Amino acid sequence: MRAPSHAPAVRYPYGRSRALGCFLAAVAACGLGCIVAWLLFGTANAAVAIKAAAGLALWFFCSAVAWHGWRSMPVGHLAWDGAQWLLEDPAPGRHRGVQGGPQAHLDLQAGILLSLQPEQGRTAWLWLERRADPLQWPALRRAIYSPARVQAPGMTETMSATPSRRDDGAPTQT
């Protein structure tokens, strides 16, 4: 039996997704089209016009919140050094350690939605896309889905493909 392969160190960029921005713009445009059609074709009386105006105000508010959320997406690098995940800010030397590993919530092969819990602060949600760094994409995916090497002080690696043995050399029962 072969030993499990462990992912190599990788550093991958994250930030505002152009595809997500286009998707949000398309949804907002469709919503606006519906509101405009409602205003043009369904405003025979004042009650409908007031509802359509309220719908337009709601559309504007939702579009502004979506735009703000897209513009304020975090920017930096997600790094795996072989033992620990780090969130690196664009400023040199600024990085935050991550508790545990990233949790993949949506994997579309060309993009992954991850959540990470930094050692300090709130949960970070990242949308990573293959087009950000196509050469590092396979290494990133291996790092996300491979178990981390865990070593306790004074012990050998805990992830091992060889069967464990008791002190007398006999195989252990699991």
Q: Can you tell me about this structure?
A:
The protein folds into two domains: 10-15 and 75-145, Roll (PH-domain like); 18-71. Helix content is 34%, strand content 24%. The chain is built from three helices and six strands; from the N terminus they run βααβββββα. It has helices spanning 18-41, 46-71, 137-145, and strands spanning 10-14, 76-80, 85-88, 95-107, 111-118, 124-129. It has a six-stranded antiparallel sheet, with helices on one face. β4 and β5 (111-118) form a beta hairpin. The longest helix has 26 residues, at 46-71.
Average pLDDT metric: 80
Q: Let me know the largest β-sheet.
A: 6 strands, antiparallel
Annotated CATH architecture of the largest domain: Roll
Strand fraction equals 15-25%
Helical content class: 25-40%
Report the uncertain regions: 155-164
Order of helices and strands: EHHEEEEEH
Strand order of the largest sheet: 1-2-3-4-5-6
Tell how many strands the DSSP assignment holds: 6
Helix and strand arrangement:
Elements: E1 10-14, H1 18-41, H2 46-71, E2 76-80, E3 85-88, E4 95-107, E5 111-118, E6 124-129, H3 137-145
Helix pairs in contact: 1-2
Describe the structure concisely for a colleague.
The chain is an alpha+beta fold.
What labels describe this entry?
6-stranded antiparallel β-sheet, alpha+beta, 24% strand, elongated, 6 strands
